[in-house]
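Technical note accompanying the year-one report. For the benefit of new consortium partners, we illustrate the data format agreed upon in the data management plan: each record pairs a sequence with a structure-token string. No post-processing was applied to the example shown here.
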Amino acid sequence: MSSIPKEPRQLMINLMYLVLTAMLALNVSAEILNAFISLDRGLQESSQIVQLSNDQLSLAIEQQADAYSQFEPYREKTREVNELVKNLSLYLGGVRDTLIEAAGGRDEHGMPKKKKNKEIATRMMVKEGRGDLLKEQVLAVRAALLATVEDAGERAALEEAIPLRIAELPADSEEKDWSTFTFNQMPVVSVLPLLTKWQNDARIAQTVLLNHFLKKTEVNTIKPDAFIPVVAAEKSYVIRGEPYKSEIFLAAYSSTADNIKMWVDDRPVVVRNGKAEFNTSTGTIGAKQHRMRVELTDPVTGEVKRFDKTFGYEVGERSVTVAAEKMNVFYVGVENPLAISAAGVPSGQIKVTASGTELEKKSNGKYVAIPSKVGEATITVSGPGLNPTTFPYRVKRIPDPIPALGNLRGGDVPSGTFRAQQGLIPILEQFDFNARCSVISYEMARKPRSGDVALATNQGARYEAATRRLVDQADHGDTYYIDRIKVKCPGDISTRELSGMIFRIK
């Protein structure tokens, strides 16, 4: 993504604001006021979309700086830009909250009660000088954002792409003062989308600069184009009763890389398509140890990095091993992978049976166990020359998920952050299986600083209309309670009730 200030949706919203402002001079009808409300909501939605893009751009720059120390200055510039935009957005949000408070607070729809009032904006923004201060803040942030680009030519090229600015007064304007021209005799509801527009323009300016910084961190690296799952076991042979420990991860490599060299026991091995194959005879029984060395040449700096590791295996007589690839228990409602093999016995002659669970055969000694109820299960393996060997497993239900609003789990939360959330998410923490729990219902209660408690019951994860109205009313000093959270996870017959959350709006 290069930059998005010319997005059709954004241009349409800007044009709508100009048209609606012109119509105010003719008539302050309910239809026009409602149009301003819709416009403000549209701007807020656009701002959220832009912020998601900015978060991804920031993460990409952070990752480049982590990988290459020469890009550390762009990490710092990114953080500076993000902080400038964040502070301006908070300032504009504060002006917005002050206007709404002066207009009698919010009504049941979350809008200012005195939304038609023209004297409030005139007094605050014109007579009290807050409009001039706002202008100074916007211009100061624009200058600070551009100052993060040191090259004068690049800075000049970016100036036009940054929409955060204060418009010049029309040549035929009777008003010679910007604050008077912008805010004098304007209904409160017409000022809100203007404040939101500056917040949106700041985030678009942030996008332009982050794209510029990300382009500066591009390097001609050899990128992974192939992936393979790897199980690195602490020991390749275990005795019954001993713990089996292994690291399971996904390895990425380049099938076209020519900057990798490998040795095993000081003998080079041929690297083809980004990886090597090591073969040796196993004529004797017992533990075997080998030393591996890998050298990787950095394509950017030319630096050679060396990696050493010792690996081993045990050569034994005919035996059977069964290892759960993820955990030493089975979970109800999900596929539990198993790798089953018998040394010295062809895989086609191995017989595997199960009790307490369904067992589905995949390929190459791979199986999945799918139990349907909590309790115990057994896997029995037999084959030519092998007595049946039984392996017991405990069957558990999926652990309770943790409820969250985005990444929020309770405590003190800024009002803007709280209002930006879209619904409840049940998170399965430290659970390695591909499973997702569903939110069935929950209750939300709002306790304002003064006034009665308001309650909403929500079906599903995403906010319904009543819950959304409660969230949009979040203000300093409010307390929100979310409880009676009912969810359903794979394998569940009935719903579960999770612990509630408490948020204090600051």
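Partners are asked to follow this layout when depositing records. The longest strand covers residues 286-297.
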